Amino acid sequence: METEFTPWLSLAGGVLIGLSAILLMALNGRIAGMTGIMTGIIPPFSADWPWRIAFLAGAIVAPILYLAAGGEIAYAVPVSLPLLALGGLIVGVGVYFGAGCTSGHGVCGMARFSPRSIAATVTFMIATGITVYVVRHIAGA
């Protein structure tokens, strides 16, 4: 599978992710980890659920607005739905045992020089590299 590298769109996306993380930390004192944000809207609701809903709504609405403005999102899923579900389950288990997700550890934790987040992000990256190698070169998907 070949992907199209889009440096300007990638830079803009990274800046927006960083800006949202900075604003959430500055205005609410909270880490922008998607898993932690989502758990606060699952009953029993967290007392601070309104900002959580707004943050998640922005993550959903932003790509829709981008598409409505004429943008294009190219993606391909090289595996079947059952393998996708299995991958989601494995990620969920990893998030639970890793005490956070890639956004919490990789974006916010590393920016704060958290040793735990640095270790978690290194683990994510190694596991990702191994998974891509296995899926593309051994399993042939």
TrEMBL record:
Family: Belongs to the TsuA/YedE (TC 9.B.102) family.
Principal place of residence: membrane
Record's keyword annotation contains Transmembrane: yes
Localization (cell): Cell inner membrane
Topology of the protein relative to the lipid bilayer: Multi-pass membrane protein
Keyword Transmembrane: yes
Protein name: Putative transporter component
Transmembrane feature ranges: 6-28, 49-69, 75-97, 118-139
Keywords: Cell inner membrane, Cell membrane, Membrane, Transmembrane, Transmembrane helix, Transport
InterPro entries: Sulf_transp_TsuA/YedE
Gene Ontology, cellular component aspect: plasma membrane
Superkingdom classification of source: Bacteria
Organism per entry: Hoeflea phototrophica (strain DSM 17068 / NCIMB 14078 / DFL-43)
